[in-house]
Amino acid sequence: AELDTLDIVVLGVILLGSIVYFTKGSLWGKQKDPYATSTNLNGMAARPVRTRNFVEKMEESGKNCIIFFGSQTGTAEDYASRLAKEGKSRFGLETMIADLEEYDFDAMDTLPSDKIAIFVLATYGEGEPTDNAVEFFEYIKEDGVSFSQGNDDAPLDNLNYVAFGLGNNTYEHYNTMVREVDRLLTKLGAHRIGAAGEGDDGAGTMEEDFLAWKDPMWTALAAHMGLEEREAVYEPIFAITDREGLTAESAEVYVGEPNKMHLQNSAKGPFNAHNPYIAPIAESYELFKVKDRNCIHLEFDISGSTLSYTTGDHIAIWPTNAGDEVDRFLRVTGLTEKRGQVISVKALEPTAKVPFPTPTTFDAIIRYHLEICAPVSRQFVSTLAAFAPNEAIQAEMNRLGNDKDYFHEKTGSQLFNIARLLEHVGNGETWDKIPFSAFIEGLNKLQPRYYSISSSSHVQPKKISVTAVVESSVVMGRKDPFRGVATNYLLALKQKQNGDPNPSPFGLTYELNGPRNKYDGIHVPVHVRHSNFKLPSDPAKPIIMIGPGTGVAPFRGFIQERAQQAREGANVGRTMLFFGCRKSTEDFMYEDEFAEYKKALGDKFELVTAFSRETSKKVYVQHRLKERAAEVNELLSQKAFFYVCGDAANMAREVNTVLAQIIAEGRGVSEAKAEEIVKNMRAANQYQEDVW
Ligand code: FAD
């Protein structure tokens, strides 16, 4: 076979990589590329080893702008790649995007001042960095942080940077990451260009906040760097080539397998965000007793893997898109006939990464790797206008892309996904002029969804329970409700497991058998994410848990654990659960189980319920909490741990407020003082949240 230049470069890098690997392997220990083409000594997928010095990397690849992302669910990564593309197409910047965890930061003081670093940083949980930003944040936060050229008062005087944060105002620590990083960099002498932007998911304005921030930012950056704006031209980042001679049956073709080990049936741990375990579902059943809403309980068997968990951790589930949406996408883009065609996807520039393994098929990419059901962004509509089937449609796309109000008027409430938007605007025309690269660039990678594990590792270390409510939201102006990607897939799996050979919840069909039937026998790709949401190590400590709806998930695990400890003779402290749902006869999940735990725990366990639709006035958990003020105060004085899980938008915040009121009244202190007490409880981990 012929070697093209890229292959030679890749081979060269592999060779160089091997030398580096054997000489200082320990320093270069991170082997995480899931699609690697070489194998290291342990038979683990390994990537050609790359430098962790980003300044060197930029130098080597001729870049003058690096865009770092700290991303948990993929949005920050998406924004980073959009900034990279826009910087290139509008200003001719030589951009690269960079995962924060793939670089070291001691050379940050050597970035030449005519180059620029952009930070796109999501805040996660309680003001924490995203998993991939932890090391970076620790590094710059450190007292007396040291850079390669030694320390002085302003070690980062050379560094010019731009910053945007993704946060949620319903959380106490709104956009902490970007604020802190901005403060720390400035303190270290770096210079910010433009304003530090903040997007708010809580208000639902993330996308518009981002769009509104980036234009003045580009103006400031262009002025600073002396850039000339040019006519934006679309340049594909990925080359798609047909692989004649290969079919979807060929052994080397990925038809949905997440990485090479899975393709070769040699998958093994460590299982993580790059390498899922294909877990059998041991059992699954419905928890609600009402027709039009579903909540499912699933048990994942991890006994055949190296996976482990502790009570309070999260499990990530890797979903498959619904067949109907896959079909719609292929139809509107004119790819139906070619869905099984084998293609290779190659990055046209060295710093871009293909987000899935290839060779593969269009069908597999759409079904397993791209988030095709999420609402389409206005900026993406703008990008696609150039490839409209005719001029009238192009004009409409341009208007939608450029006019915020028009976009919201025409599409806003309907939250079209990409294919639905193209269908709607295209009036029956096929969009076959869009280069496929644009979809890989413009759509997010299909993200695993996280679930709070609802079992105890003490009771069932090899089985992970999940409690998932099936997402279905009514969309104004649309006939069919929006159906959540992962939860409807889980619902179909549950139906299949319980006897329906061709399940189609709400008419949705799924390839439940997975690539090459590898998920047959009811398997789902998963990995575990460890969390800090933990029971006190001493079971005698009292705990108060607030978990309405699926917020009860981790608490089922907590109580399961304490019941077992009680059976084993341990002295278990007071265990109070506030649970809420609509009606005791409809969505009161685990009612019978809680009765069983009560038998083991006796008076130590109390379940306080709030049924919002059984009385004329709606009753929620926070009302019940208030009614029990005296007891709550008493338990807190015994250093009870206080836990909140579930809805971040309203419930968690209200519970926080109510707790402060309870403390204020009970201890006769001002509300301000009580709020400070709650804050201190949080800081001391006595108040823990697991909210989403
Ligand atoms: P998605 O497809 O991701 O959609 C999510 C929501 O986005 C929808 O409800 C809808 O409002 C909106 N949306 C997206 N696209 C569109 C569109 N095109 N049109 C209209 N609306 C749209 N959930 C549980 O049930 N139990 C748990 O124990 C649990 N624990 C969690 C723990 C953590 C740490 C986190 C972060 C989340 C947890 N979740 C839990 C939530 C869970 O991860 C998923 O977000 C949830 O199940 C929905 O996933 P989905 O794929 O079905 O929906």
Short description:
Helices cover 34% and strands 18% of the residues. It has 5 domains: 5-46, no CATH class; 54-225, Rossmann fold (3-Layer(aba) Sandwich); 273-319 and 448-529, Translation factors (Elongation Factor Tu (Ef-tu), domain 3), CATH 2.40.30.10; 323-442, NADPH-cytochrome p450 Reductase, Chain A, domain 3, CATH 1.20.990; 543-691, 3-Layer(aba) Sandwich (Rossmann fold). It is globular.
Q: What does this molecule look like?
A:
- The protein has 692 residues and is an alpha/beta fold.
- 34% of the residues lie in helices and 18% in strands.
- α18 packs parallel to α20 (651-667) and α20 (651-667) crosses α21 (671-683).
- The protein binds flavin-adenine dinucleotide.
- Flavin-adenine dinucleotide (FAD) is lined by residues 314, 319, 373-375, 415, 417, 449-452, 467-469, 471, 473, 475, 482, 484-487, 550, 553, 692.
CATH topology of the largest domain: Rossmann fold
Name the shape in a single word: globular
Number of beta strands: 25
What is the residue-averaged pLDDT?
Answer: 91
Count of runs of 4 or more consecutive helical residues: 21
Instruction: Report the CATH C-level class of the largest domain.
Output: Alpha Beta
The SS-based structural class is alpha/beta
Strand composition percent: 15-25%
| Radius of gyration (Å) | 26 Å
The H-level CATH homologous superfamily of the largest domain, spelled out, is Flavodoxin domain
CATH architecture of the largest domain: 3-Layer(aba) Sandwich
- Which percent range fits the helix content? 25-40%
Bound molecules: flavin-adenine dinucleotide
Low-confidence stretches: 15-47
Give the terminus-to-terminus CA distance: 51 Å
Give the number of domains: 5
Largest sheet: 7 strands, mixed
